[in-house]
Amino acid sequence: MIFGIIGHGAAGTFAALRLRETLEEMGRNAQQDRILLFEKASQGLRKVKISGGGRCNVTHHQFDSTLFCKNYPRGNRELRGPFHQFQAQDTVEWFHQRGVKLKVESDGRMFPETNSSQTIIDCFNKELQKNQIEVLHHKNILTCEYNNPSFKVTLGKGETFSLDGLILATGSDRSGYFLAKSLGHSISELAPSLFTFKIGHPLLKDLAGTSFEKVKIEVQTEKRKWQEEGPLLITHWGLSGSAVLKLSAWAARELKTVHYKFPVFVNFLGLPRENIEKLLIDHIKQNPKKLVTTIPLPGLTKNFWQTFIGVLASDYPKLSEKMMNEVSKKEITYITDQLFHFKFTTTGHHRFKEEFVECGGITTKEINFKTMESRVCQGLFFAGEILDIDGITGGFNFQNAWTTGFIAGENMAKLCFNEEES
Ligand SMILES: Cc1cc2nc3c(=O)[nH]c(=O)nc-3n(C[C@H](O)[C@H](O)[C@H](O)COP(=O)(O)OP(=O)(O)OC[C@H]3O[C@@H](n4cnc5c(N)ncnc54)[C@H](O)[C@@H]3O)c2cc1C
Predict the structure, then answer these.
(1) 3-state secondary structure of 295
(2) What is the DSSP letter of 124?
(3) Dist. CA 296 → ligand 1 center (Å)
(4) CATH number of the domain at 2-191+357-421, please?
(5) Does the CB atom of residue 385 touch ligand 1 within 6 A?
């Protein structure tokens, strides 16, 4: 038999390897079946290479599948079953068995011990070779036809291949959506996810590089609001950091509909309002004869505090010239309110250099998540980011690729083998 997988990315590679492994488990040797891994670019695994800032955040250290699922704004329900078949712990084990040890960072992200994505790529290349997967680069699949029960794929210059089973693992490439549509599938609305917020505000202007360990942040549209907490980073263009990236994922579709112009509220200390007020009052009591701007409130940097008080001067012009013990009750209330719920307005979005994904893709109700087979076209399977599934930052997007790739590869083998038997 000849099996085809389109896309030499994370999902396609994993699918190809599990396909071969399953065929072997069924007693078939590599000479009996060809596995073709088509890739339009000159090399595969390009996103793996640049992922996690070149370190590849392979997965997340959360081995409870139900909790793991909570990190998918889209796909949370659909992935529950698949994670019972292959979850983060299996990923760790899979790489370990092949000589790649993963380590956990304090926030749960898992990376190769070498801190290099090349380790993952080297591992895959070795496995692809060992398992006699035919990796075909510069093979841009232009069309797919279903000639029950086989598929015909066409490349440039009229080159064609006839395939007994097909996996589409083309990531967020538009051509993959086109191929899926031509085979009867529908694509849910696409929108970027994991982006940062463009904001032009005097408070941010000179503070690029300032980070906060744990803020609370809220975005709002007319329809609803979303809240997140976590690290925040001020950048040259606005706000970034994992709290922002997570919010962008949860609200991806709605923020697109408002053209990325929406209010953002930040609680810079991540504390309840009354705690902030108490902190401020204590701070004033401890430093009565100091100029307000000289000593920052605990938890804030001096630069931020000075700029922040300076920005408040538009409403309270004398504030930055006052001694701490001259700050009025009204001013304390105002400073507290601003630290607790500072309002910015975004002017657009910016794709984070570290990680971004596509929200939207193959409509999930058209897929059987026990097998990853299409409900529309028999013998067609899907894996990875092409699906209408995406996770927040932290290794969840690769885990989707490993899990769905694993299941698609395994079940394509089972389907074709059973068919041949019958
Ligand atoms: C900069 C960056 C960093 C990231 N870092 C992380 C991270 O650390 N951890 C994490 O979990 N996620 C990360 N992600 C997200 C993660 O990389 C993706 O979710 C994941 O790569 C999706 O895998 P995939 O195999 O579905 O798609 P892809 O990796 O995009 O692979 C699809 C492949 O299919 C090929 N292809 C497409 N169409 C055709 C066609 N018609 N014919 C032939 N070939 C075709 C493409 O060229 C591509 O090689 C990052 C993303 C980016 C952009």
Answers:
(1) coil
(2) H
(3) 44
(4) 3.50.50.60
(5) yes
